[in-house]
Design a protein that fits this description.
This protein has 4 domains: 40 residues, no CATH class; 47 residues, 434 Repressor (Amino-terminal Domain) (Orthogonal Bundle), CATH 1.10.260.40; 130 residues, Rossmann fold (3-Layer(aba) Sandwich); 130 residues, 3-Layer(aba) Sandwich (Rossmann fold). The protein is built from 13 helices and 15 strands. The protein starts with 12 loop residues before the first strand and ends in an 8-residue tail after the last strand.
């Protein structure tokens, strides 16, 4: 029994809710409000998330009644429901969203696996994904594979263990086995690929104009008067690199220019590889007068190196590259690029995945191509 701290009476004490986690009491005899610490307060200083059991104990009712009231069940009297809500607010009750979601068989969470979050392209994609997902009421869990196939596999396992409703993925440059994706596809998990896709899997895909964009860049260099155009490509087995190199070769063939294998270098996108290729080309007796890069960051590295060597851009060597970001427009000379619109890629990928999640039984996978844009800047503009 609890006695009033003022008059000492017990029979006049009634409960009056909670304040800052403490039981609030009222003495009807002397009209005094006062609080007491909850039992074992000293041992409970660690944060404790209020549960429906805690609410039920305060009100002297069953946890099932509390649960039904908080879920707006018509079985619960309105006055009872309002009192339960009042106590829940005073106890700072927060529903366990994960438990509720698992009970419904969904989490309203999307998993995303990307190779490198530091690359502006993938940061832009994630921003697009986040915007669409948030507007649709989905949370986003992002994992980075660091261009490692084993890390990518572990990321997928972790996201599936977290019961994501669907998966968005862009593969690493070393991924050539897709068993970790096939496993979950067989289980009916909605999966959408973007950028670096796997064509052997029956999933929806969001891609950019790899062939068309590269063709446009090389054609532009040719129209500026370039006759010997080198190509700094990506890994030989990387699908997007293959498509971009196909565009490069098609443009040369259209204008009757020779495809010189000595002017084609397959890199790992590393700066040291890129600069090694550049130095080899510059030592040729008939060096290139134009360079096409499948990745704009490598072109920026080349521009910096050429400036140090006092080689005029674009007068002696013109450059153009696939992809764009703020640095490409700010460097001097500014870089001619083919903009992929990564934010739009992210938006489309998220929209398709959510459609797949909602209409799982009737969804038919398809490929969405995001149109890009040739942006001509100083690094290539001779005329």
């Amino acid at each position: 029994m609890i006695a009033c701290t003022n008059c000492g009476k017990v029979e006049t004490i009634v409960k009056a809710g909670f304040i800052r986690g403490k039981q609030r009491l009222f003495c009807k005899g002397c009209e005094l409000y006062f609080t007491i610490n909850p039992p074992n307060a000293a041992s409970n200083k660690k944060s404790h998330q209020t549960t429906i059991v805690d609410i039920a104990k305060v009100l002297g009712i069953s946890p099932s009644t509390v649960s039904r009231a908080l879920n707006n069940s018509s079985e619960i009297n309105e006055n009872t429901r309002q009192e339960i809500i009042r106590v829940a607010n005073e106890l700072d009750y927060r529903p366990n969203l994960l438990a509720q979601s698992l009970h419904r068989g969904e989490t309203h969470t999307i998993g995303v696996v990307i190779p490198d979050i530091q690359r502006p392209f993938f940061a832009g994609v994630v921003a697009g994904i986040q915007k669409v997902a948030s507007e649709a009421g989905y949370r986003v869990m992002i994992c980075q594979s660091n261009e490692s196939h084993s890390t990518e596999t572990l990321n997928v396992q972790a996201l599936m263990a977290s019961r994501v409703d669907g998966l968005l993925i862009s593969h690493t440059k070393e991924t050539n086995s897709f068993e970790h994706i096939k496993l979950h596809l067989k289980k009916g998990v909605p999966i959408v690929h973007f950028d670096r896709v796997c064509e052997e899997l029956e999933t929806a895909k969001v891609i950019q104009e790899d062939f068309e964009g590269s063709f446009a860049l090389v054609e532009h260099l040719i129209q500026q008067g370039c006759k010997r155009i080198a190509a700094c490509a990506g890994p030989v087995d990387l699908l997007i690199s293959q498509k971009r190199m196909a565009g490069y070769k098609a443009a040369l063939e259209k204008y009757g220019l020779t495809i010189d294998q000595n002017l084609i270098f397959h890199s790992d996108f590393k700066e040291e590889d890129t600069l090694s290729a550049l130095n080899q080309w510059l030592e040729m007796p008939n060096r290139p007068d134009g360079i096409f890069n499948v990745h704009y960051a490598n072109a920026i590295e080349m521009i910096m190196a050429l400036k140090q060597k006092k080689i005029l851009i674009p007068e002696e060597i013109a450059l153009a590259a696939f992809g764009d970001d703020l640095l490409a427009s700010m460097i001097e000379p500014s870089l001619t690029v083919y903009n992929q619109f990564p934010f739009t890629i992210g938006q489309e990928a998220a929209s398709i995945l959510i459609d797949n999640i909602i209409n799982k039984e009737n969804f038919v996978p398809y490929t969405k191509v995001i149109k890009g844009k040739l942006i001509v800047r100083k690094s290539s503009k001779k005329n």
